[in-house]
Amino acid sequence: MKLIVANWKCNPSTLSEAKSLFNEVKKRIEEIYSKKNLNSEIVICPPFIYLSELQSSTYRFYLGAQDCFWEEKGAFTGEISPLMLRKLGCHYVILGHSERRRYLKETNQMIAKKIVAALKFRLRPILCIGETLEERKQEKTAYILKTQLRESLELVISYKLSVSNLVIAYEPVWAIGTGNNCSVDEAMTSLMFIKRQLLNLYPKKNPNKIKILYGGSVNSKNAKEYINVGFDGLLIGGASLKSREFIKIIHFIQS
Ligand code: PGA
Prior knowledge:
Number of domains: 1
CATH architecture: Alpha-Beta Barrel
Number of helices: 10
CATH class: Alpha Beta
Bound molecules: 2-phosphoglycolic acid
Strand content: 15-25%
Number of strands: 8
Distance between the termini: 13 Å
């Protein structure tokens, strides 16, 4: 089962646009179901304020959030808790996206707490990791991926939580929103490295259950290549805001 996640980021600017994009995608997914079995799970992650307006009861078509806080409730101005998201019908939550690391100074330690909180309320965390261009040039990619994985999963490991609901998204920062997607060979090197790290972190569990996605300038022309080299799915930003392009990607993954 492949996992295709749409990260709408801070888009679109009105509820009516969000509804029409969502309904368009939903309609096309229902059409695909009616013809053949969908071999993917589709997740739409809109801005928080649209979540309650975009409910889905369509099979394998889920809602996700783009972040959550680590506490269930309390005096935390501006925050949204995983419990609230779960009660709204969310199944997934993106955590540690590079834009949050960069603009909001999120650290691996904060992300680690969010992952534990998400799992507690049965939200599937999508942990984003990836190196910047600078780090890649300095040949620090392996070090960055290893550190992000180890530190972000530290609490999951020490609390001995199940890993079967965990999703990792490899998103090289330099490939996000640039049109400059990571070559399939380079992406595959990172995929293999991440798999090895997960085996080191979870020697006794079965880390093969953890889905690993690719993200960064995915479009209908390159999407299938990442699946062909072994990624379990995709995290899609820009291309998920154009319903036709997004549906094309889903079709290609199906074929
Ligand atoms: P992009 O964004 O597809 O626009 O590069 C991906 C992401 O940031 O998750």
